[in-house]
Amino acid sequence: MTTQAEHHMPTAAAPAEAGLLPSPEPVRFLDDDGAPAPGDAHGRYERPPSALLKRAYDAMVLGRRFDAQATALTKQGRLAVYPSSRGQEACEIGAVLALRETDWLFPTYRDTMALAARGIDPVEALTLLRGSWHCGYDPVATRTAPQCTPLATHAPHAVGVAYAARRRGEDAVALVLIGDGGTSEGDFHEALNFAAVFHAPVVFLVQNNGFAISVPLSRQTAAPSLAHKGVGYGVRSERVDGNDPLAVLAVLTDAVEWARAGGGPVLVEAHTYRVEPHTNADDDARYRDHDEVEAWKRRDPLARLEAHLRARGELTDDDVAAAREAAEAYAADVRARLGEEPTGDPADLFAHVFAEPTPQLREQATWLAEELSHDAAEGAR
Amino acid sequence: MTLTMGKALNAALRDAMREDESVVMFGEDVGALGGVFRVTDGLAAEFGEDRCFDTPLAEAGIVGLAVGMAMNGFRPVVEMQFDAFAYPAFEQIASHVAKMRNRTRGAVGLPMVIRVPYAGGIGGVEHHSDSSEAYYAHTPGLKVVTPATVADAYSLLREAVADPDPVVFMEAKKLYWAKDEVSLPVTTEPFGTAVVRRPGSDATLVAYGPAVPVALEAAAAAEADGRSLEVVDLRTLVPFDDATVASSVRKTGRCVVVAEATGFASVSAEIAARVQERCFHSLWAPVLRVTGWDVPYPPPVLEKYHLPGVDRVLDTVDRLQFDDAPDPRFLTGAAG
Ligand SMILES: Cc1ncc(C[n+]2csc(CCOP(=O)(O)OP(=O)(O)O)c2C)c(N)n1
Asked: Using a 6 Å cutoff on CB, does residue A84 contact ligand 1?
């Protein structure tokens, strides 16, 4: 294994470049079974504090149960669609736990688990996936942007929010979640470039889960890794075992604090896997091998964390039972509240297009209201 | 004092920046150069690099950055260097700028202005003369503003910067050098108000942006032939002033829409439809349109054949059935 410095000629530019390059191998603290990984030498990264890992464990148990519940609710038609993030718990939870309350999160459609971990009401968090046009929660109060459906378009927004925070003298950081497919979009590249040029406190977390719907990573990029994408823009880059909660937390905490301290943006590629289909409506048998899925399931981030904490005596049977119990209660609450038929006020259609509706919108709202009152009168007769 | 539209826009930005610290300006070449049309001239020098700055060359990035900054306390004014170079940012504009308020149920408004130098008549090479207003006007959630006078340029841009919602501010390139007597600061009619630029009784010319001077010239020429044309300048396409347009057409009974953009699926088509819907019983002739042809914007040597000019407007006015107007009672059904 070569060191980072050996990859490059010792020119004047080399130190800067070497500082941007990701570790030669993804950072990991645990092996696939949750035992300490061999040669546990990560330079700048330290094992996250036990209390943080315990919080991560609880949140991951909750997140996984929530994810299963949401998937189940699609079968009953309670959600229009649900993209599962099962297997990506370390990334989803790690992203949130690396942030302070005043930091911003920019999630995609897949990151509902991260919203729950941010403390957003789960029913509000599922508003979009229920089929609504709005995100359900207040993005300013929660410091969480609406889940983004068009790929990568939220990345430049995160740069703008982070840059604005810095200009206002706040020490807030913005963390962008994005998939491997999303890294091919132009907006991802424009955002990296802007972040670097404006030295904005942004962390880009690429959840490389192997597929963009059916298309494998080899069709997205020919680069040595997605982490290398930052280097050309002058963005410090790193890669991490995305199924190792210790490594994800260590790397992300370091990245967020580096950005907060004025170090500039950081790109982190997390190697993980989407063990469920793309959404409930996807047939993953058409594009991947059952054995591959099973192999990745054996690297389950939750099991690895549990094994690690138990081995250190930091997690007892009682702790595990309590976490599961809390998750069951959480899921039962989601189930109960999503069991109700959603109602929509048709006046809402026109309410938030502009701060003040245009005359045309007022006319259309009146027209629809009249239509509905006729219908109601007809119904009453 | 005598002022060009370009200078009035510059003054509007300067005054907005003086009044409100949260106003920031960015785009391509807007800093030291002052923009290729000099609309941001001197702003970087007066307000510093933090308030008026050059960005990397990336339109989606520029608009996306503005979205984030507007989400977090700033009032960005961004410049798209030319109409056709805003297209890389269209995804940001259509999917995010236009929808953020709605997607957040009113929690996040985006007070931002996207300035688009647009339309032709200045001998530009390809991709430098598009009339792209229909794309924006067709997208709910965007205000679309296009001044035709120097005073409006100042006043509407001030209002755009102060607006709580995103405004696409379309500046007709050939009007940058148009001059007028104006003393600044000036406040003209607010958004959503069309203005009768020239009163008349025989027909209404509805125009906006670069077509307004053409309509006024045509009206002046028609007067020599004894025909009185009223000219309505829309000023803002969104919000649209149905009331002023309809009351003018009800008075004159005839209407020609004049616009530089291609006619098919255009703002001019929308106006014609709205006038027919509202003024059917007052009309003595169908609503006609004078627009650019339905062709990609032509090269400089051919643009004079493309742009609707005074002659084409006057020819169209002549087709408004002045000589054999149908009996209006047939239109209302009263004669049956
Ligand atoms: C601009 C855009 N193009 C296409 C789509 C349709 N689409 C939704 S998800 C997806 C795959 C995205 O893959 P990736 O970025 O790897 O994220 P993942 O779904 O794996 O989390 C596609 C193509 C979209 N949402 N946005």
From this structure: no
Summarised one tens digit per residue, pLDDT across range B247-286 is 999 999 999 999 999 999 999 999 999 999 999 999 999 9
Integer Cα distance of A292 and A275 in angstroms? 9
Test A160 with B66 for CB contact under 8 angstroms: yes
Instruction: Specify the CATH number for B195-317; select among 3.20.70.20, 1.10.1040.10, 2.40.50.140, 3.40.50.920.
Output: 3.40.50.920
The amino acid at B75? R
Residue B333 has pLDDT above 70, yes or no: no
Distance A220 CA to ligand 1 centre (A): 12
Per-residue pLDDT tens over the stretch B53-103: 999 999 999 999 999 999 999 999 999 999 999 999 999 999 999 999 999
Ligand 1: atom nearest CA of A207 is 21
A212: CA distance to ligand 1 center in Å? 6
Ligand 1 pocket mutation pick from A110, A129, A151 by most atoms within 8 angstroms of CB = A151
What's the pLDDT at A41? 58
How many angstroms separate the Cα of A293 from the Cα of each of A53, A87, B183, B309? 26, 10, 72, 67
Residue nearest to ligand 1 atom 26, measured at CA: A150
**pLDDT, position A7:** 35
Identify whether the C-beta of residue B40 lies closer than 8 Å to the C-beta of residue B6. no
In this structure, the number of other CB atoms found within 10 A of the CB of residue B32 comes to 11
Assembly ipTM? 0.89
Tokens of A368: 């629809």
The whole domain housing A203 covers 28-39+47-338
In A, residues 331-370, which contact B (CB 8 Å cutoff)?
348, 351-355, 358-360
Q: Which residues of B belong to the active site?
A: 128
Instruction: Say whether A187 and B102 touch across the interface (CB within 8 A).
Output: no
Cα first-last separation, chain A: 82
Position of tokens 């942007």?
A145
**Cross-chain residue pair A164–B71, CB shorter than 8 Å:** yes
Asked if A376 and A299 sit in the same domain, the reply is no
